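Thread: Newbie trying to understand structure tokens

Hi all, I'm a second-year student working on a class project, and my supervisor (Dr. K.) asked me to get a predicted structure for one chain before our next meeting. I've only ever worked with sequences, so writing a 3D structure as a token string is new to me. If someone could post the tokens and maybe explain what I'm looking at, I'd be very grateful. Here's the chain:
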Amino acid sequence: MRPWLALKWGGIGFEERIIPLGGEGYGQSQIQAVREVSPSGRVPALHVAGAVIHESLAICEWAAEQAPSLWPAEPVARAEARAIACEMHAGFAALRRDLSMNIRRRLARAPDWPPDTRADLTQLHAAWERALDRSGGPFLFGARSIADAMFAPVATRLRTYAVETPARPAAYCSAIFADAAFQEWERAAEAEPWTIEQSEALYL
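---
Reply by user tm_fold:
Sure, no problem. This is what the structure looks like when written as tokens:
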């Protein structure tokens, strides 16, 4: 979702190829169809000018070189946006572990998270609050940016796992969910030929 949103927001045309995940090699970066298009064995992977960019933030940075509006124009805000995007990219390990992404999944109530996951959620909300306080919203730095693309999947995880979210971060999630490009991605994901039982089996 992250580079897909960045490319869409930047008005950069691309051809999309969907590769079903699961089956032999899943979770080990060894799915054959993925290996054929990505040297890391992971997706997304962008093929451009004879090269393969096989990492989300790198694809987003490439997109920003084509569409500079994907980062804030003001230098300090741009540095802050890069910092928070990199924080999401490299951090929040417990959140990633316990709130895996599944756009179709919905829990009636949040689990009893372990301490490190609760700490990650507190850190996440605080980071969003700081950015929104400075920018005034609705997105982290006012207009849509790569920082929002990096956090969009996390917004869906909070929804999936019924995470109690403070008002300002909750409004930010609503802004993500109302975005036309996000809704296009979500509709396509929901239309993929997976049953909820097959999706849930990935967690077993």
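A couple of things are worth pointing out once you decode it. The chain has a mean pLDDT of 93. The longest helix spans residues 115-135. Feel free to ask follow-ups in this thread.
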